[in-house]
Fold each of these.
Amino acid sequence: MDRPIQPALSQFVLKVHSRCDLACDHCYVYEHADTSWRGRPRAVSEDILAQVADRIAEHARRHQLPTVHVVLHGGEPLLAGPDRIRRAAEELQRALHTVSALDLRMHTNGVLLDEKFCELFLELGIKVGVSLDGDKVSNDRHRRYADGRSSHAKVIRAVELLNRPRYRRLFAGLLCTIDVENDPVAVYDALVALSPPRIDFLLPHATWDTPPPRPGGAATPYADWLDAIYRRWDAAGRPVPVRIFDSVLRTLRGESSLTESLGLAPADLVVIETDGTFEQADSLKTAYDGAPATGMDVFTHSLDDVLQHPGMLARQQGIGQLCAQCRSCPVVQSCGGGLYAHRYRTGNEFDNPSVFCPDLLALVTTIRDREAAVPAPTPTSAELPLDQGDFDALAAGFGGADTVARLAAAQLEINQELLAAVSERIALSDREGARAWELLTDLDAEVPAELDAVLAHPYTRPWALSVLEGRAAPAGGLAEIAAATVLRARLGRSVTVPLRGGALRLPGLGSVRLDGGAEDAEVTAGADGFTVRAGSGRLDIGWHEGLDGPTPRWHPVRLFEGEGWSVAIEDTDPLRDCHKWPVSGRLAADEAKLWAEDLTGAWSLIRHELPAYADGVAAGLRLITPLHAQERSNVSAACKEAWGAIGAARPSSPDLLALLIVHEFQHVKLAAVLDAVDLYDTADRNLYYAPWRDDPRPIGGLLQGTYAHIAVTDFWRVRRRTAEGTSERGAAEAQFARWRQQTAEAVEELLGSGTLTDLGQRFVGRMGHTVRGWLDEPVSGAALTAAAGSAKRHRAEWKARVEASR
């Protein structure tokens, strides 16, 4: 997958106007230490807008950014007027076309927002965030005109306008600056009543030189104020995303923050002022006069130059740039030292905790402890997300066709939900993405079964997650899904699909290699096949054209058809590289034939000798991706996000291929179970002994390995009786003796970990029941001795390595 080269900037605040029509007394631009606004032009010029767009596109191209986020800001950006706002949007769209998707937003006080602006924003794809500090009394405490008049009624009118059905998709959310003199519940209730898509509560900007108000000398008034809202929000079922709460909850789970003011992620934001100068985060204006300045501008410096500024570099270093007190704090992963500007103190500048340190510590620990105090519901048999019979069959290590089919249906539902989440990431300016989503909506109504078949492709979820994590733009994948659905349904429609490195990806069907430097291709289904047009070229491909037929640029997915099982040999999908090992390229015809021959033998062995696994494999294993193993043998892998897929290098025999298949499909099944139920405490950071690994494993890795080795043990258990030749059967017996003992040890390690949930205890207990039943099966004394010796040596060597590493 394409990944940005780090470090990189992906968020840009573009000042289009440097004055404001309100006189908010808590404004950091005009009321705090920095006075640079006085010498800047009121509005940004057209020349600067064009150069800004080119600089951003230059940076996005170099760092392969899938999406660029730009916020039009001020002052008050609406004062720039519709023509200048249009010019800003069109310059950005021009420069970023074919480079990155553009997520364009505006932050406004709302008092000038009207239908004319909203129509412009619909056309240009600009989402709008509005500042509002709550109910009228709370809002009027600070957010007034210079003559003291209230702005509240006009802001409410603006929000009501954004809530109209025509404009609702423009509404990005509400931003509220905290004043602890205001009633927190009244503020929250007033904001929620406006049905915003998101609420962002912001700590007032302050430093150690100018600390925030703490009425009555309260120790943690800001944490207390936010906690009152948290309790009301939580009790109501968390009806709207609240960024500060969601960020704390995410960081407590080890995920990334949603805001720069929390967490340890490197800063990726820069500000461009109306005179074209680059500045660091606007919040630094609260520290001292000139604090955000870089001395650089869009005409003489690139964004990579800006990244080398000492202030920018400091904010790229995660925990390393924090003071000693912060580095030793138990909540540093969530707090992240707070907002950089809030650490400032004359004398040692930013080498301090946040001036809000007591509040941040109290807020994070209160949320953490409250979450921990709520017991995770333990489902009864009737409440299990999985059918009780399915759960028990899978826990034993098996699971037949019906059980695995139900797992597959649950996985498809997850993919459908992820697709809907991806649609929310389509920027209003992303017309290609919007068209693809509209077509998918139509296809879901017309041919839902065909669409579901494409969504069930194992590499749908890795793509969707890459979009949701900001590593890819949505339009290309959506168009690929739509095109594959149209082809499967034989619909006479044309779909335009962006190319990936000159390749047209048709998930589940194959890929078409195209020359000529085209950026996209038009795919059209017909009666006899489909047509691909790219640039001035055209390819006509028959529905039943052979795997290596008359159109050499067409690389269809090869299918292995066994008795009761059809599986794809997926060597075409550009997104298949999500396994531990590198993938092979397109298999040559003779190598594909060897795969088919070995799969014939492997499937025969599984069906006749391992029937407890065969039906599940047939129902759930959709594709095998060939891996490139170099000199290693028996290489295989499963990706937890790619349900229905395994990766494998073709081993030396069909027997070993059968082993790889049942082994890896265990991982696939367990990943689906873990999507449905929690089997262990995900916060457990301890490491455990795994008899098949040289390194200690986290609890999840140990569970996965143990579950997979049930199938490994069973394979050798059977092969000690069915392998050809005495020596082969003897070797299989030794393997069986070894793996049953070591898998039983791993089960005991899991059961003794103290970190399994009640359902996890039940699941692992049934795993143990399966393995313990094999311990009574007779094996030769030589095999027992060899197994005991192997286990003893492995544990002793493992212990020595662990102790040496401490």
Amino acid sequence: MTSAEVSVEATDGETTILKSVCRSCHGGCGTLLHVRGGELIKVEGDPDSPLNRGRLCPIGTVTRDLVYHPDRLKYPMRRVGKRGSGQWDRITWDEALDEIATRLGRIKEEYGPESIALGTGTGRHHIRWVSRFGHALGTPNWAEPGFAQCFHPRVNTCILTMGEYPVCDFTGDVPAETIMYWGHNPVNSGPDGETRFNARDSLAQAKNIIVVDPRETELAKRADIWLQVRPGADDALGLAMLNVIIGEKLYDEDFVSRWTHGFDALAAHVGQYSPEWAEPITWVAAGKIRAAARLFAKTKPALLEWGCAIEHTPKCIQTIRALSMLPVLTGNIEIPGGWVFGMKGIGRFPSLIELLSPEANAKRLGGQQFKLLGGEGADLPAAHIPTLLQAMREGKPYPVKAFLVFGNNTLTTYANSSLVYESLMKLDFMVNADLFMTPTAELADIVLPAASWPELDQIAGLPTIAANVVLGQQKSVRVHECKADEEIFTELARRMNLPGCTEPVRDVLDSQLKGLGITFEELTKKGFVKVPFKYGKHEEKGFKTPTGKIELYSTRLEQMGYAPLPYYEEPPESPISAPETAKDFPLVLTTGGRIPFYFNSEHRQLPKLRKARRDPQAEIHPDTAARFGIESGDWMWIETKRGRMKQKAKLTTGIDARVINAEHAWWFPDEEGPEYGVWKSNVNLLTNSEPPYDPAMGTYQLRALLCRIGKAE
């Protein structure tokens, strides 16, 4: 029993306030948990937290409703009917863990540890523990959609280019003069410690705002310059801006000469990518491109605030490379109010990857081909999801027989949901740990009830990777028979006599905090520690690259066989690359825009949030809607070569008449199981997990797809 639990039980009838950190998304807002008589009675923002200063978003305010929701998974269950039948029996934790350990042991012995795969969702408390357990088990095959499609392409690319991953200096004392928001809408989302609130505060202080987005978001309406880019053409736009900055000599000559490698090669290379060249590709006027490039280059400090939209097409690494050079060329690196490298307030997580032999590492699905995802260019190697699913379906290059899923609704969050379903149905054994029953969990053999964030101990170093602020997430209550994912891994590892992942969770947390000189228990009393920040760290030891400089011409990418300079490449399914397909599917589909009341596929069970957004909305221009007889609020079909689904039409002039924007991750917990409406409005019925992929990252196409529409009667 923790000291927090003792405090709660010792003050029965009184209210105890515990400091923690909200993880209903992975933004990291500091919170105060009010506990009375062993019950969580209120959750409010921590006014002392530098990340949110007392504020909470709609999702955070309903945390109590999440913890005590009547539909929470309450105890372990074993499937008794055929897979997907929705028939379950209650079992004990000992029965569940013993059966999982036994069946995994048999599969490991017969097919090898690589035949067991693990899947997880977005990067919160449990994500690193998934790969950690896999490494202890001996399998290199763990996967998370974001490792090829969200955030980690930026992480791995920036580490190769700069030696570190840069973050926006939102918690410093100097505000940015200019902020360019590219493929991200932080008004509606706040990932990785760059919360909705510190992003909003910086927005209010900035003198100039540039927004790159196909949609006229709230940010776009406030922008000085809105670049309404065609979905999937971000690389062309970024290269054209580099062309202007270099061609007009707007770059920081001192920083570039002292601290970059390959400038002359880059300058010669981008000479071909003029704004006039980019205009027909991007649908953005050449004059606007020049104006945006000049504004960004001529003011300092300037920030590039980017999001996962740039990582949703199969050329994401070179897109990231091009965009990352904008702050570099303008000298906005490691200065107050610019892009900064973190202070690493917590130690590197003990992933146990050292337990994998070279032979086991070589078996990582997709690792040999996609080196930035699963090989030498990866910060934490992961398996390639399409290759993993193929191994489930076809046994190629070897069979994957078991899949353990923690905190991921796979049928809604992997591309091409029909193919995902086919793959999961081929498994011999599947386990799913989650807060609620989902369409994915209904396919499992054993379902485990996971603890929600106020029910478990963890630490959060934010922004992610940088860890400039370290927050303690502490268990305040525990409902039903729920367990934290970390505890599940520890108990399974002990049952299976694995060589690691067996120590208590608190021991791992304490080991990560040694550099701060505090224990986890001391951290929870403080709530958070803000690490004193130092700018210009490169002045002492240079950048952590082979040349000691930021590599505009990447020696590491060249060494691995990839292009050392960023280049333009059209998405494989677009009006330009696939004109024959465009005859039948004439509109461009973009997906993934965030809804402020949900986090990806989560929270649709919560009445207060569902009231705010009952049904999915697809944005369509009024002229396009009129052509197809669609009125505001009508259900309309959206169809690609993979399938079709329907969402409600939201008419707006803030989108190009050639573009449709569909919301992602929709399912309907209030509809009948075991499917819960997953085939009704799920945009991943339309997305593409087939090749070609990003040659370095294995990224597939989630945006810039070709579609057609029609009114759904």
